[in-house]
Amino acid sequence: QVQLVESGGGLVQAGGSLRLSCAASGRTFSSYAMGWFRQSPGKEREFVGAITWSIGRTNYKDSVKGRFTISRDNAKNTVYLQMNSLKPEDTAVYYCAEMSYYRPTGYSVAESYDYWGQGTQVTVSS
What is the CA radius of gyration of the chain? Predict the structure, then answer.
């Protein structure tokens, strides 16, 4: 059973930075990719970005390109979300998720992912 634990959330002023971590335990060698999603009150969960375990290919939501960077440490089974130039509209609960094998539905669809973390709150003040 795969377990995902996010950490690193908190309160930051606009323009600041945070780095989220997602530690995965119980994952198999063949797990395909990790994604980051976020959800703010009254809104649907939205895709932020994703990274493949094998070659580290990344994919991002347009509004975070150039500000957010996803990386992974295969040895630690950990994925990171570095968030710079944060804006109040980035405020949300951030979730990591694991895609156990490639899905043709793609990275940005929540149904492509098999396991989810509990989420970590990110609040950006103006």
Answer: 14
Q: Is 90 exceeded by the pLDDT of residue 28?
A: no
> Cα angle at 62 between 57 and 64, to 5 degrees?
85
Reading the block at residue 17, the tokens are 């930075």
Where do we find the tokens 């990591």? 96
**DSSP secondary structure, the chain, as one string:** --EEEEE--EEEETT--EEEEEEEES--TT--EEEEEEE-TTS--EEEEEEETTT--EEE-GGGTTTEEEEEEGGGTEEEEEE-S--GGG-EEEEEEEESS--TT-TT-GGG-SEE---EEEEEE-
What's the CA gap between 9 and 62, in Å, rounded? 22
Cα separation values, 66 from 27, 28, 59, 101, Å: 29, 31, 12, 27
Give yes or no for a contact between 21 and 94, defined as CB atoms under 8 angstroms apart.
no
Taking residues 59-86, what's their average pLDDT? Answer: 96
Token pair recorded at residue 63: 């509004």
